[in-house]
Amino acid sequence: MQTINTPLGLKLPKLGLGTWPMLGDECTRAVLQALALGYRHIDTAAAYNNEAAVGQALTDSSTPRDQIHLTTKVWWDQLQPKAMRASLEASLKALQTDYVDLFMIHWPGKDWDLARSIETLVALRDEGKALNIGVANFPLPLLRRVVEEIGAPISAIQVEYHVLLGQQHLLDYARQHDMALIAYTPLGRGKAAEQPEIRQIAAKHGVLPSQVALQWLLAQDHVAAIPKASSEANQRANLEACDIHLDDADRALIAALPKNQRVVNPDFAPQWDPAEA
Ligand SMILES: NC(=O)c1ccc[n+]([C@@H]2O[C@H](COP(=O)([O-])OP(=O)(O)OC[C@H]3O[C@@H](n4cnc5c(N)ncnc54)[C@H](OP(=O)(O)O)[C@@H]3O)[C@@H](O)[C@H]2O)c1
Question: Fewer CB within 10 Å, N- or C-terminus of the chain?
Fold first, then answer.
């Protein structure tokens, strides 16, 4: 499995397993199965209510903890220093681990003290509770403040990204600053595979439309993807998507698809880049 290696020490397998909205035993089983198949990157969050289930899988698995990249996140109403610390402590306890590989702010806060939240994020990294820190769902102007005004050592940004939603500005920035861009909802929750152009490319190569959508992301420098898959067949298909090759004609067809079809847009979302609304 290819990894994204950054100067801040992030070693991120390009394909990970998304765990939302799996809960309880279903989630434990899916994570265990993924680890057995060779996944080494698991994505969870305090808000998913499945960290204990993920922790159970990590404990039950024969794969050593230090070979697994584990991401968790703190919810946007827990960004005051004390609350953020408590959230990470609770996550570590549920996950049955002393550290996470990546700790992220899940969404920007409301009426919040950005600098204090980021200082706390950095302190948790300095204390070794998170090997790397990042932010999710931050539009570029906010990410720039975090990196350029506050000077925080941000290793990754996680945002929705797939064949129907562009993220060119954030991706350019991530590359310039040597951080990973983790694509969530990378299959557009099924929408990607419904596109006639994606199906046409899949038929040409004798692969699945979902694999075309994933490979388009995985082939991009600095980009990782975290499809959620519960069945063994889907988990395996997504792993195998790492080995597919798309050609220039395929990429041109995908480039011409609309790039503004956002799937995840809750009422607490920030104002998105108009180019990628
Ligand atoms: N940071 C954030 O704010 C944020 C927001 C949303 C999501 N996320 C993360 O991103 C992860 C993935 O996003 P998502 O769940 O929204 O969407 P997604 O990964 O685009 O789509 C998941 C759906 O695709 C199906 N699927 C998976 N592999 C498939 C395959 N090979 N062929 C056909 N169907 C397949 C899954 O079915 P089965 O389960 O039946 O296999 C599931 O119904 C989440 O689990 C979560 O970890 C983060």
Answer: C
